[in-house]
Structure formats: structure tokens, C-alpha cells
Amino acid sequence: MGSNPKTGSTTITDAPAADTPKADGRQRIVDEAAALFLEQGYAATTLRQLADVVGMKAGSLYYHFSSKDELLTEILQRGIEIMQQAFDTASAPGPKAASGPKQIEAHVRAHLAALFENGPYTATHVTTFRTAPPSVRTAIVPVRDAYEARWTALLDNLKTEKAIRADVDTGLARLILFGAMNSSIEWFDAERGNLDHFATQLTQQFWSGVSA
Description:
Blueprint: E1 2-3, E2 10-11, H1 25-40, H2 47-54, H3 68-91, H4 100-116, H5 121-128, H6 134-160, H7 170-183, H8 195-210
């Protein structure tokens, strides 16, 4: 195992250890890594520590991932995939067209579910992306932008329907809404609080500032 002088990421230079993980080893590595990155941060988590948690030799991690950066890239990618799936669920047509506030609330609730109810992947994405190595951010930006564009399109459609005021900058409005949702990772306790109530409150405050 060595260090890349250009990126600082850890890379493998030795053959995998004899205790090469089984087929499900990759999934367990990703699960545990996402939890550790969320709990103590990407930079503070070492591959040796991760190997101890997973229960394998450090060298065996490289049977699945060539570097810590590659592992983080997969975790952030999965976090976005969960968000996209949540957005799809919220966009599913109901018996009749929902009002603007109901559409926003459905998507807010879905985004919060991705953060708090679907494992650590999405939460790790939110807390780690800004400080991730440049190569990781470069790989993730396109899929991240695609998810954010769906939200902007949702707000643009409501603006076209005149549910949102004509003077509202939908791109800025989305950033404000994302800030409120994503920052809740730092203070909201999903075991004690009620996500449905939280989504309703957040939607009401947001909608009061943009509605026609």
C-alpha cells in the first residue's frame, strides 16, 4: 500500500491478502465505510480502521477498491441514486393533479426520507461532498447536477402554471430549500422527531415565500 503524491489518496501496490472477501464483502465494505464517513468524517477515517470494522485484513479491501477515493466515489454515487429514486416516487401521478404545495411537500418528504430513512449514503453525500478530493467531486458533479436540475424543473413548471410568482428566481429558491433540508442532518433527530411534520413545516415556510 502506498500514497499517490499528486492526490494524497491511498493506492494499492501489493497483492490482495489471502483472506480475499466473499462476493458480499464489497457491499459490507461500502455500508460500513458510509457509516464511518458520516460519523467521523472522510479524512479522519482510515482504511485500517475500516478493515477492522469489516473484519478483514487491510490489504483485502483492495480486492474491491483501488483507493479510498474510489470507495468514496461509489458511496456518493449511491447517495445520489437514492435521491433520484425518492424523487421518482414523489413524482408518481396520483388520482388527480396535486396542488403546488402538495407537490413540493411530497418531494421534500421524499428528500428527507433519503437523508434519514435509507441508510447513511445520502447523508454522507450531503456532509462529505464539499470536502471530498477534487477527483471525487469531478466524478460526482454530473449526477449531482442532474438531480438538482429536476428540482429546478419542478419549480419552473409551477412558475409556468402561475402557482409560483413570476419574480421568483427558481434556481436560488431551490438552493434555499436544499440548504434547509440538507442542514437538518446536523440537528434533526429522526428517532425523536416526526419527519412528516417536519416536511409539512418546511414546505409551509418555503411556500409562503414563493407562492403567487
